[in-house]
Amino acid sequence: MSAEATNPEAHPEARPELRRRGRTRLDLRRLGRAALLGPTSRDRLPDAIGHVAEAHRAHYPDADLSILRRAYLLAETSHRGQMRKSGEPYITHPLAVTLILAELGAETTTLTASLLHDTVEDTDVTLDQVRAEFGDEVCFIVDGVTKVEKIDYGAAAEPETFRKMLVATGNDVRVMSIKLADRLHNMRTLGVMRPEKQARIAKVTRDVLIPLAERLGVQALKTELEDLVFAILHPEEYESTRALIAAHAGERDPLPAIADSVRGVLREAGITAEVQVRPRHFVSVHRIARTRGELRGSDFGRILVLVGENADCYAVLGELHTCFTPVVSEFKDFIATPKFNLYQSLHTAVATPEGYVAEVIVRTRQMHRVAEAGVVALGNPYATATPDAATDPDEERVDPTRPGWLSRLLDWQQSAPDPDTFWTVLRAELAQDREITVFRADGGTLGLPAGASCIDAAYAQHGAAAHGCIGARVNGRLTSLSSPLSDGDTVQLLLAQDASSGPAAEWLDHARTPAARIAISSWLEAHPDRAMAPTSAARAPLSVVGARGGGGNAVADLPDATVRLAGCCTPVPPDAVAGFLVRGGAVTVHRVHCAAVAQMRAVGRTSVAVHWRATADCRVTLRAESFGRPHLLADLTEAIAREGVEVVSATVEPPVEQRVRHSYTLQLPDAAGLPALMRAMRDVPGVYDVSRV
Prior knowledge:
Strand content: 15-25%
Number of helices: 28
Shape: elongated
Helix content: 40-55%
Oligomer: single chain
Radius of gyration: 35 Å
Structural class: alpha+beta
Largest sheet: 6 strands, mixed
């Protein structure tokens, strides 16, 4: 992700109205960077609630601040006498969390819940009191952020707290917004704790909260959390990166001059744009150093171009690629194809005549706000909901901002009652940092992590019914269930009708989503004695009696000639046929469209007229293509027997990629029944094609 850990409106030049009013803005990025680069004063913020109110009014000029004042009074009186481990009054923590969210542009309900987020957990205030004073929405959010009691859950308290919080986030994404801001302030003040506790909190932040911040698009919090975790878990690498940044601070920075050139190019083109130089945060510098080795001055930051409309973004891109030398491999269009966390921008890189390469990000101001604040920038997602849907605590609200990954997480966590399993699988799920979208055959879509297979798609679409999945078509072509899917693929899943069908143990090797892995493991544990290998018959020699031993119902207009049906096309009445005289005086009979007919004529074989006898019985060889599953051979032979057809011989080849080929030589009492027989064989679950050999 390209956005740096800055407040989305932190730059005064981005908001002319703030210059006119002369109000001092609190730059979260500057404060966070200063905390990393050296010790800072721990003086109490003067009139902290006033700072919150001003920050909130910058985004919502008409906001009613009376509810914030009431929430502050309740929080201050409830926490009065409580102290943080740093020695500060406890009220400084909810105030700092609320200020972070206010700077990001959170709406009033979020800020109210943020001020109260620790009252139910750490004071005598109850949820009923919060509901009576501030309404159901604030009460729901406060309850979602409140930890479960350790006395009730013991060592499972932390996993169960996150489970509770994630379930609440599924109903209201503002719950996780507050948790992320809460963790950021705690990480900023983590230095007063023991090193081992710092490391434990930092690891949970790295494994769970930073991925959640990334997925919710809250880059302003995510990147600062990354830096703080980096400093605790990798102190030596952090110090090395810090030294790199400090050394660069004393050198000439080429980016301001490149930014001036970009401004000039856009000015001449008549494009109104704001051009900024954006320093990289610590972890970003560290990653670039590991990738590129020795860093140059232009590697320590990026150029950000802000415009008014989407079309202006592409106009800027055209001017940049015309007036500078573009680095083609660095171009990415996240406007046409946004990331799954709402992020939109154009990314490119240009080379200057001096030999510097500068990365450039182009976006609209609205895109910039969403890129920095993510779901926080969306305001209240329930503003247009009906009153009943917004207040009924027993009915799940439809969240227009709920992403696919969160819906998947909410589904699989219900199947993971064990806290250890939930905690382990949650971390593995969040480690999947990319998502793909595949299209279902019925026109719907499935959001899956990158690397997901057809097995994952089956469980995402069909749940427990996917146990009977026997194959898939991807983009119209048959493929094995283990095949990985790519973004934009169309997948059609084929399910068996046999209720006893179940997954194979090998499916676990190809399942990537927790929902699939948990469902497969549960089924295998419940059926320990089931052998899931496809049923196959011993290989037998193919016996096509009609083709080798005689002419069946075919009669040649050549007295005393031996007539044989060709094995390459196995003609049966009422096929149009052609006969040819071959060695030994025999007549071989082919269907007229068989490729061998042209070959016979090309080599000068004598043509012999043939016709069918009046008797209706005939012999034919059919090939069935199917997916391997238990009882498949028995089901096929049963379907053949129901049509009154005799099996003369059969061959079942060993399965290849879960696909099996069956060949049957059959004696039909009436050739007219062949189409019905082939349909009956195709109707057997798992069979996807039946053809004549």
